[in-house]
Amino acid sequence: MHSHEISIRIRYGETDQMGVVYHGNYPQYLELGRVEWLRALGISYKNMEETGYILPVTSIAIQYKKPAVYDQVITIRTHLRNIPTVRISFDYEIEGENGEILATAQTDLAFLNSETRRPVRCPDYILQKVLQN
């Protein structure tokens, strides 16, 4: 399955007094990974929303292994778990500069019609891009 990675530097505001990333910031890192995964396929999240689709998270699980700290560069690896249907599922690894795995995670998201908020199948243009890569 298609995967993507992006590296970012931990900002001061993402940490607590000990300089450790606050656990509530990890879902934002996962979102960044997903949005960039889509962008790498040539799909704009903004365009997807403008064409009537939204993609809310339906489940999230994060396993914290080691702390990420202020000024550290982390790499977020996003892996598509399976071919999307009404849902799309991802696995993630967040790695530190030294190659250590800091966290792993899984998310499930549902494709919804933005007007009705009802589930819909993955848009064909997204499915085609996934199957091409």
UniProtKB/TrEMBL annotation:
NCBIfam families xrefs: YbgC/FadM family acyl-CoA thioesterase
EC number per UniProt: 3.1.2.-
Pfam families referenced in this protein's UniProt entry, alphabetically: 4HBT_2
Keyword annotations of the record: Hydrolase
Family matches, as CDD domains: 4HBT
Name of protein: Thioesterase family protein
PANTHER family: 4-HYDROXYBENZOYL-COA THIOESTERASE FAMILY MEMBER, NOVEL THIOESTERASE SUPERFAMILY DOMAIN AND SAPOSIN A-TYPE DOMAIN CONTAINING PROTEIN (0610012H03RIK)
MF-aspect GO terms: hydrolase activity
InterPro entries: 4-hydroxybenzoyl-CoA_TE, HB-CoA_thioesterase_AS, HotDog_dom_sf, YbgC/YbaW
EC supergroup of this enzyme: hydrolase
Similarity comment: Belongs to the 4-hydroxybenzoyl-CoA thioesterase family.
